[in-house]
Structures are given as C-alpha cells and as structure tokens.
Amino acid sequence: MQDEFLNRLEMFRTARGTLNSAEHKPTWLNQDPTAFTTKEAEMEAALADLELFCSQYGADITGAAKDKAREKKELEDEAFELGSALTEWFLDQNDETSAEQVNLTISAWRKLRDHDLVGTAKLLRDLAQAVVSGAQSAAAATYGVTAAAVTALSAEIADYDAVLTAPQQKIAGKRAGTLQFRTRFNAMEAKFESLDRLIHKFSGTQAGRNLIAAYFASRINRDRGAGPGTPPPTPTPTPTQPSP
Q1: What is the C-alpha to C-alpha distance for residues 238 and 54, in angstroms, rounded to an integer?
Q2: pLDDT grade, residue 167 (50/70/90)?
Q3: pTM exceeds 0.85
Q4: What burial class does residue 11 get, using C-beta atoms within 10 Å of its C-beta: 0-12 exposed, 13-18 middle, 19+ buried?
Q5: Cα–Cα dist 190/12, whole Å
Q6: CA 191, CA 16: separation in Å to the nearest integer?
Q7: Is there a contact between 214 and 203 (Cβ–Cβ < 8 Å)?
Q8: Less CB within 10 Å around the terminal CB: N or C of the chain?
Q9: CA-based diameter of the chain, in Å?
Q10: For 94-148, what is each residue's pLDDT tens digit?
Q11: Distance CA 199, CA 190 (A)
C-alpha cells in the first residue's frame, strides 16, 4: 500500500481514537446534535470496512513467493535424486544419449527457472516412466528407478506448477485493488467531513471546545514515513474553526 494511503489511514484512526477517548466521548455521544452520534457510527463502520480492504489488498506477496521457493527446492531435490539414478542406469545400458538428457548436477537443477525447470523435470519423468514400464523395470529398480520415484517426481512437478504463477497473480490482484484505493479513501474522507461540519455545534462548553481542538489536530494528515530532511507534507485542509 502506498505511503499516501498509509498516512491517510493513520489519520483516520487517530481521529477515531480522539473521538472515542474517555475524555471526549461523553461530550458528543447522544448529545445534541444527535446526528453527530449517528454519523460517527457510520464512520466507524466505514473505517472498519476500509481497514479490512487494506488488509486484503495491502498485504505483501512474500507468502506466495515463499511457497514458490519451497516447492521449487522440493522439485529440484526430487529431480536430482531420480535423475542421478536414471543417469547411472542409462550409462550401464550404454545409452549415453539418454543419460546426457538427465545428467544434471544439483547446482544445474537450481539454475533452471520456472517453465524450464518444469519442462526438464517432465522430460526426466517421461524417460523414467518408460524405463519402469518396460521389460527391465526390475533391474532398474535396483538403481532406485522405480514407479514410486516417478510418482513422487510427478507430484512435485504438479505442486510447483500450481504455485508457479501465484506471485504474479497476487501482484495482479494488488494492482486491481490499488485502482479502488483512492475511491474508497475519498469516500472515507467524506464521512469525516460530515463530522467536521457538525462538531462545531459542541463549542458552547469548554469540554466541547477541547473536543473540537483535539479532533481537528488529529485530522491533520502527517507523513509518518518521511525521513530526515524530507519537506513537511501539505496538511489535509480542515474547516476553519469558529471563535469560542
């Protein structure tokens, strides 16, 4: 989620916290104008919805990336194990051409990326399947080239294939969500603007004036991610407060 939206979300939360503090809540809750209480409740519901939206679309993609990395390693390890056994089998059968296709070191398997890894693993699987389905399957099994090993490799291929595009899908989902961010945040701002206009009605008492001052102080959009030397941001405009 962009810093702009993070800053605005923090401002919304701060303003909500100010209104609901033990000091200020009794000043407005169910007090005239009672429309303020109604609109504050609407704001609470809208902000909860916005927070849920942000948690869904603002999450990073490290989870999907970690899944992909884990499945990749598992496929590499399985392919290297079966590939080494199959290479030895082919060499002992004087089939150097087939052996060359699957004789990869573990570092060579690690260097394969995405669809190249899947394609090479499928080639290995198909060659191994032909062996375990043939007349010399019993002899090949003594090398570790077995139907179980082929099944295990097939499972790892399927697992990796399933997560292969997950990070890209997550990014695409985030981009689609970002298009909705400004609309949702502007709608949230409108909820607070309604409170901005009504809160002045509480200026008749000192407690009300304290509420108003604290509320508008919390309605300033501060750039909490700015580093040293960063120019201060332009505050979110707030209505001019009337003199007490």
Answers
A1: 24
A2: low
A3: no
A4: buried
A5: 11
A6: 11
A7: no
A8: C
A9: 99
A10: 999 999 999 999 999 999 988 899 999 999 999 999 999 999 999 999 999 999 9
A11: 14
Tokens linked to 137: 């399957």
- For the chain, give the DSSP string: --HHHHHHHHHHHHHHHHHTSTTTHHHHTTPSSTHHHHHHHHHHHHHHHHHHHHHHHS--SHHHHHHHHHHHHHHHHHHHHHHHHHHHHHHHTT-HHHHHHH---HHHHHH--HHHHHHHHHHHHHHHHHHHTSTTHHHHHTTT--HHHHHHHHHHHHHHHHHTTHHHHHHHHHHHHHHHHHHHHHHHHHHHHHHHHHGGGGTTSHHHHHHHHHHHHHT----TT--TTPPPPPPPP-PPPPP-
Q: CA Rg, the chain, in Å?
A: 31
Question: What is the distance between the alpha carbons of residues 59 and 61, in angstroms, rounded to a whole number?
Answer: 7
Cα–Cα dist 232/235, whole Å? 9
